[in-house]
Amino acid sequence: MTGRVFMVLLLGMIASAALTQWLSVGERTRAFERYRDFHAMERAEQLVITADALATASRPTYLRMAERSTIKLEPRTGAPAAIGAATPFSTTLQQRLPKGVQVLPLAGRPPECGHPRQRSIFAPSQWGGACEAMGVTLRDGARLKLSILPPPEGPPTSLSEFLTLLPFLLCVGVLAYLVTRMAVRPLKLLAKAAKDLGNDINHAPVALSGAAEIRQASAAFNAMQARIRQHIMQRTQMLAAITHDLQTPLTRLRLRLEKVQDEELQQRLIDDLSAMQQMVREGLDLARSMDTSETMQALDLDSLLDSVCSDASDSGQPVQLRGRANMALMGRPLDMRRCLVNLIDNAVKYGHYANVAVERIAGAARVVIRDGGPGIARDQMAHVFEPFYRIESSRSRESGGTGLGLTIARNIAEQHGATVALDNHPDGGLEVTLILPESYGSRL
């Protein structure tokens, strides 16, 4: 957008300056043509009156001495030339000459009238002033030819004259850049605030500064942020309250099931109740994953991964860790631990083991968790992140799960500016890739 606004302003200013220059040069050219016509009229009148007043014997000498390159008065010999239509110049000149002197425009224009002049992007290439030939008959019957020709051209435009435009173009470019920066900078700040809002709903509001329209947009953005924060808080509190309140009746039911005499029926009821308690606990975890009230702090990613994988191995899960990121990131410790635990537990539960590899790439940390399961069909990869979504092959009592593990992990990752992606490994198994971008981490 910055480039577009800059180019529009720059081209607009240059076009406006070029139009102004074209109008100015055109008006100056027309003024010069009018002045030249006035001067030519005065000169032609003087030549004709003086030639009429001189004696016939002295007239040729005077004509040779008075000959100019642009206004010529010379004897006319040969057959009478064809008479053309009256022109403003010939009509005005006839009115200014004494009685008995006759001026008639000739049919053909002088060849010099059609010669192209020095071409310019602003000035016309043809002379627009008076350029014609007239027949003059003096009072003694002498016939003369009066030619009004274009003035000589000026010297061609040199490179130095074009270089004088560089300061103007430079000033226009600087002005366009400053205006573009003033116009786009508040939008960039607002876009950055929107990005920060997506990563942290409790991010500080946008400062109200700048033009009235920018302050109004910033105030509306801050109001939107406050409403979103309030809605999320209300939803989280409602979900947490529901899941918390369900714990008490479920516990009472479990105690009462201990009195059931039929052991087979008792075990089935206890399994169903355990599944319900697991759903309540994960629902509470889902509500907590939307809560961003925990303070952000610097975390050693390698230490966090080592702790999570060691705990999983101590609990009997086949988990291996290799690689180092040598990276510290800003995050919420409990949330990041819950994200990694969910991803590893999901790999062990459905893929029998979890091989965790971490490395640093282009200023970001990449954590890859691979399992030995059958993988996931391409058309279902986008759905496994949806709450309570479970693949048909995992809907058994042995596998367990409620379909909230990946949802919770992705919520936490997105709050930390990270991304979670799934892919089937060519050699079998599912790969879960967690990438923490550079803006949220730094090298230790």
Description:
With 444 residues, the chain is α+β, with helices and mostly antiparallel strands. It is 51% helix and 15% strand. It contains ten helices and twelve strands. The strands form three sheets. The chain has a five-stranded mixed beta sheet.
What's this model, at a glance?
This protein has 444 residues and is of the alpha+beta class. Helices cover 51% and strands 15% of the residues.
Q: Mind describing the biggest β-sheet?
A: 5 strands, mixed
Helix/strand/pairing category: alpha+beta
Residue runs with pLDDT of under 50 for 5 or more positions: 394-398, 440-444
What is the CA-based Rg, rounded? 47 Å
Number of helices: 10
Strand content: 5-15%
Form type: rod-shaped
Count of distinct strands = 12
How confident is the prediction overall: mean pLDDT? 80
Secondary-structure element order, N to C: HHEHEEEHHHHEHEEHEEHEEE
Termini separation (Å)? 36 Å
Proportion of helical residues? 40-55%
What topology, given as strand order, has the largest sheet? 6-8-9-11-10
What layout of secondary structure does this protein have?
Elements (H helix, E strand, L loop, with lengths): L1 H52 L5 H8 L4 E5 L12 H9 L5 E4 L26 E6 L5 E6 L10 H5 L1 H35 L12 H46 L5 H27 L7 E4 H14 L4 E4 L4 E5 L1 H19 L2 E8 L2 E7 L34 H11 L3 E6 L5 E7 L4 E3 L1
Parallel strand pairs: 6-8
Antiparallel strand pairs: 1-4, 2-3, 3-4, 5-7, 7-12, 8-9, 9-11, 10-11
Task: Considering the chains and any ligands shown, give keywords for the structure.
12 strands, alpha+beta, five-stranded mixed sheet, 444 residues, 15% strand
